[in-house]
């Protein structure tokens, strides 16, 4: 009786059955052995260093997979990753080939582990058309080592793991344990250290986006802020999209007590990264009033030159709540959604800078997106980068005008990865009206790419083609021009501001941005680099940097002493007037690409020499940062082609035997321009020389034997 136990009732027959205790223990032991075959995550490999159990199909070596089968020479063993009905038990040599060929070779590798294909009943398949065979087949799949998901295709599994890697997701993230600090990379830029994740260069898949290619952009913004800090101190500046906080940390580290830096981001992980980077650079963090965690921070009442305020808000909210002197917007994509908030609370004579990275829409690759975001119609032209900058400034102008504020464009840069616009805010309805008047439409000829801004006025013209300098509409059938815009028609640069930016770049040792600033200074004055005119002898201090003269006001200390409130107000008003009248004569809009208008079969002159030729003809010329082969000039396109034709040489010597090169009709008409009178006379002499050359070539072709003998 001791060896018997009373078993549970069999419900079908309601009969008490007595089963020996030894048999019951054997059944329980067998059930425990079969349970790992049905589970996905109950078996833990001894060699695993992950804190969470993983599936048996994830192994480091093929030998570890064979150990699961307990392969012996004299016994048949089933495959640990296949059901009995798919692969029957076999001897060791056959099971070894099966595991190697059908599981190990088609595995997905990740950090030394192999995710082998699994045929167990982990992932049920859809029933077949015949309902009796729903359990006859099991779907082959892979188990993810990170999130335990089951993926059918191998290519999908590879993409699934890559997405985890791009997001910076590791095994420890799914067990609520912070990733080790060794996984973060420390990057140093401009004497500022920041921690970044391994996928920091992919903005869609990381919380802390850091792009090393935007270093030039960050240095330009720093120079603009340094110039503003020299005008008035202290200034409150905002980095609305902090990410890693690299830009705000550079401001606080180099400008120190001149600025009060606020770094904002709406992502919690980014805010945590910003706080760690502040401590990494030995700076204190001043949290927002709503923050409750004060670990390693200072209170709101304390002020310190090495203190950075970190906030976790939406960018529109933080700009609505507070006023700033300097605001920088650098979202992922377009920044038009934040312009209204930026201009609502920015202080008078403050600066708003925005970086737009939606290059596909601004560079006319997605024209419908440009119309949706900027309300602007553009096409792909030779001057598409400047077209993008003017479209952004037009959107900024309309946003500022809605807040009764005007703008003064200080800087507009369009490079391969971004479009940067820096504007100064002028409060009042009169500056707003003056700025809106500079937003016009552009008439662009699609045949010769000549362009001109539409004249002011509300009256409809009967034939707007008359405004174009070219005569393509008369010589070509159909419509030849398109209407682009609305675009900003004013100046893109402020010469005085750029010179002070160049001085700040030299002072802080920003070598990468200095060549670009020198090009911008020459472009704003529309002069060649070596023709940059120095200031008058009355200037107290001048510094020359590669042909560009930098003026530094050497005012005495007594000039900064202000006695009384009325005197200080007069000084502020005088400074505002000087800032508004700081720019010189506006540079000509747009530029021409010398390759686009070169003559086939002719070698065009060097760009610097061609600049001298146009300058000798009486036109203003300069290089442009928008295009390395672009030339900004006030010469019409016809005269541009005339000078280019004059100083071009044949590609090969035999080209002279083909006869003289006749200029196009539009170029022949343009020879009547007074500034090119000397060019026309020299062109006539060249034509006579070409005629004599043609006559000689005809004689040579008619008598080849005699010419050869001679």
Automatic annotation (TrEMBL):
Q: Which Pfam families match?
A: TRM
**Disordered: annotated span:** 21-45
Its main localization is nucleus
Q: Which Gene3D superfamilies match?
A: N2,N2-dimethylguanosine tRNA methyltransferase, C-terminal domain (3.30.56.70), Vaccinia Virus protein VP39 (3.40.50.150)
Domain C2H2-type intervals = 144-164
Molecular function terms from GO? tRNA (guanine) methyltransferase activity; tRNA binding; zinc ion binding
Task: Check the record and name the InterPro entries matching this protein.
Answer: SAM-dependent_MTases_sf, Trm1, tRNA_met_Trm1_C, Znf_C2H2_type
Q: Which residues form the signal peptide?
A: none
The record's subcellular location field reads: Nucleus, Nucleolus
Keyword terms of this UniProt record? Isopeptide bond, Metal-binding, Methyltransferase, Nucleus, Phosphoprotein, RNA-binding, S-adenosyl-L-methionine, Transferase, tRNA processing, tRNA-binding, Ubl conjugation, Zinc, Zinc-finger
Out of the domains of life, which is the source? Eukaryota
Catalyses: guanosine(27) in tRNA(Tyr) + 2 S-adenosyl-L-methionine = N(2)-dimethylguanosine(27) in tRNA(Tyr) + 2 S-adenosyl-L-homocysteine + 2 H(+)
Q: Where is the composition biased (Basic and acidic residues)?
A: 21-40
Task: Indicate yes or no for the key word Methyltransferase.
Answer: yes
Which GO biological process entries does UniProt record here? tRNA N2-guanine methylation
Q: What GO terms fall under cellular component here?
A: nucleolus
Record-stated family: Belongs to the class I-like SAM-binding methyltransferase superfamily. Trm1 family.
Q: What is this protein called?
A: tRNA (guanine(27)-N(2))-dimethyltransferase
